[in-house]
Amino acid sequence: MTDTRSRSFVRSRWYALLIALGIDDVSRLNGLFGTGGVARPIRFGIVGIVTFGVQMGFFAGLQAAGLTAVVANAIALAIAVQFNFAGNQLLVWADLPLKLLSRAFAERWATYHGCIALSLIVNFSVFVVAQLFLPALVAVLIGIASSTAIKFVSLDRFAFRPGRTA
Q1: Domain locations in the chain?
Q2: Burial class of residue 6, CB neighbours in 10 A (0-12, 13-18, 19+)
Q3: Checking phi first, is residue 66 left (phi over 0); if not, alpha (psi -120 to 50) or beta?
Q4: Which pTM does this prediction carry?
Q5: What is the maximum span of the chain, computed from C-alpha positions, in angstroms?
Q6: What does the pLDDT read at residue 35?
């Protein structure tokens, strides 16, 4: 797929989503759909916010089910990581598509997990220490915030770098 066709595909997918949400004047949002400037970090932030909701929802539900805060956060984090990979592949770095069952996709998935390993260690370590002094939900927030910059830079430079082919 050429770069121009790829951008058109991403743009049409975003436009369709916005129109489905009832936002029919999208002309002012054109910068959100590109790959340069702040477009990618904005989409990364949007996916991150949704992922945050996924993690917090699972965390709260698992804690309500009787799991300890540490165990609930570990499980919620594992679920959120897979959701985040899908969101990043489909929305943030959609201009770098790969066939689902290809070797390149498997390599991207593995590299993604390698890149976020450090951010997960930071996230979880900060949570474990912070929850000793702060309410568990606040500790989760601090853990998530501490890993966001590490995650974006490593994903952009390694997991979702241009040049991979299916």
Answers
A1: 35-159
A2: middle
A3: left
A4: 0.66
A5: 52
A6: 60
Predicted confidence (pLDDT) per residue in 124-135, tens digit: 999 999 999 999
Whether the Cβ atoms of residue 70 and residue 131 lie closer than 8 Å to each other: yes
Residue 146 pLDDT more than 60?
yes
Which residue has 């241009």 as its token pair? Answer: 162
Q: How far is the C-alpha of 6 from the C-alpha of 44, rounded, in Å?
A: 18
Phi-psi domain of 22 (left: phi exceeds 0; alpha: psi -120 through 50; beta: other): left
Can you give the pLDDT at residue 2?
44
Residue type (1 letter), 54: V
Task: Give the other-Cβ count within 10 Å of 10's Cβ.
Answer: 23
Give dist(CA 75, CA 79) in Å, integer: 6
- The residues, any chain, with a CB within 8 Å of residue 47's CB and separated by 6 or more, are 84, 87, 88, 91, 92
pLDDT digits (tens, 9 = 90+) for 76-97: 989 999 999 999 998 998 888 8
What's the average model confidence in pLDDT over 145-165? 82
* Amino acid (1-letter code) at residue 95: D
Q: What is the DSSP letter of 95?
A: T
The length of the chain is: 166
Specify the amino acid at residue 166: A
Nearest-angstrom CA–CA distance, 52 and 147: 12
How confident is the model at residue 31, as a pLDDT?
A: 52
